[in-house]
Amino acid sequence: MRLRTPHALLATAAALAAAVVAPQPAAAAVPAPGPYYVQSATTGLNAADNGGAVEQRRPRGNEDRQQWQLKPSGSSYLLENTVAPGSCLGRSGDQAATVACASGDAGWEIDPIGADRYTLKVPGTTRHLTVAPKPSGATYPARLALGGSGDLAAWYLTPVTPATNPMPPQDRRTLDQVTFLTTHNAYANGVDGGFAPPFVNLVPNQTRGIERQLADGVRGFMLDIHQTPDGAILCHNSCTLVSRPVALWVDLQRMVDFLKAHPDQFVTVFLEDYVDPAVLRAELARVNGLSDVLYRPDLTGVRQNGWPTMTELAAAGDRLLIFTDHSRSADQAAGLTRDSFGVMYQPEWTVENYWSMGSGLGTSDWSCYSRWYGADTNIPLTRTEPGFRPLFVMNHFRDVPLTGTAGTDNTKLADRAQRFCQPAARKKPNFLAVDHYDRGNPASAVTTLNAYTYP
């Protein structure tokens, strides 16, 4: 399992959500008629019909009545629910509601406001479809409302089936265009050493060691590290009662050695990080050759210019990217930040969907929404910045890594990525994280996603 609680991730949520700019001329800027998700630019959640009320819900593809057919209607537009013909996204008083498409409460003026965003305004008024204001210490209310303009009234009209572009040639592919097979709890494999007390050891997340994972094409590794007198140790929840535990530096050395032998390859490490920054720095110092391959996007203008090509990364020797889920603010209070020695704070560079699809048995939850959405933080999967698109980590695993269930889930990986998570994030997943990567052929999903780019 990968149980993680949100931290105080960035200085302000406002710095993460791009501001709504002043309205621009509409000249043919409204999307073409067709099926869309009406997706909040603030929360990343979708407008859905719930028994006549229109609420923001976790993106769930073609489930949960979240798809709307955009249709011109005179000088305005209708949004007809795709599973309820004749029922349109409209309003009742100051609340959003589904109404008869022939009703005077069904039409909207749709105006572009830059960066592929729109407002939906009641014709002839200043009333807009909006997310209700967020109460202190709570998430945004589910029910959508009518209100003024501003960030809460900014919407994406996300195509249900977007037009895609062919993947560029090998020498022109940027890092954010590529998808990598990623192992969840890669260290918990029962091959390289102990990772948990004896009972938990009976249900490993993987059944092959790190070196075999690398040989099999795994290029993303999720690792849990805990602090002991011996340094940063790879353990699940706690290192107490773990026999033959493995140190972080040992697995990183395996990756560095692999990269030295394969100079065209790129590897990413995601740390679920429970150690002091000085301990982590000392652990990394034990890895021979790490500085030769460590990639520092914070020092190379990525936030201003976007991600480099894979060819540029290989030429520069920048081929190992390390993220931590630890809090920057906590490190600042301790007087040592992890990015000062090359470990990037993940929420500043990526978006990531919530980690669990449910229990190890039975039906699964395919909804795709931000891991960092709650009362204390709001980083939608749709987050983007001028010149920079965060990498998208797509989690696809359950609470308990049962081999048979994981194998079945892995056969559905490409389907979930394309129908659920890709439109939820408005970007293609860059890391497909799974349990038991050797079951259900998740590598085929990586191949499918690496055949195109999302516009």
Structural commentary:
This protein is of the alpha/beta class and 455 residues long. Strand 19, helix 7 and strand 20 form a beta-alpha-beta unit. It folds into 2 domains: 142 residues, Trefoil (Acidic Fibroblast Growth Factor, subunit A), CATH 2.80.10; 288 residues, Phosphatidylinositol (PI) phosphodiesterase (TIM Barrel). Helix 10 crosses helix 11.
Short key terms for the protein model shown above:
455 residues, alpha/beta, Trefoil (Acidic Fibroblast Growth Factor, subunit A), TIM Barrel, 2 domains, 10-stranded mixed β-sheet, disordered N terminus
CATH topology name of the largest domain? TIM Barrel
The CATH homologous superfamily of the largest domain corresponds to Phosphatidylinositol (PI) phosphodiesterase
Query: Spans of 5+ residues with little confidence (pLDDT < 50)?
Result: 1-28
Helix content: 10-25%
The shape is elongated
Beta fraction of the residues? 25-35%
Number of domains: 2
CATH class placement of the largest domain: Alpha Beta
**Total helix count?**
11
What does the main sheet amount to?
10 strands, mixed
Between the first and last Cα atoms, what is the distance in angstroms?
33 Å
Structural class designation: alpha/beta
Task: Quickly give the CATH architecture of the largest domain.
Answer: Alpha-Beta Barrel
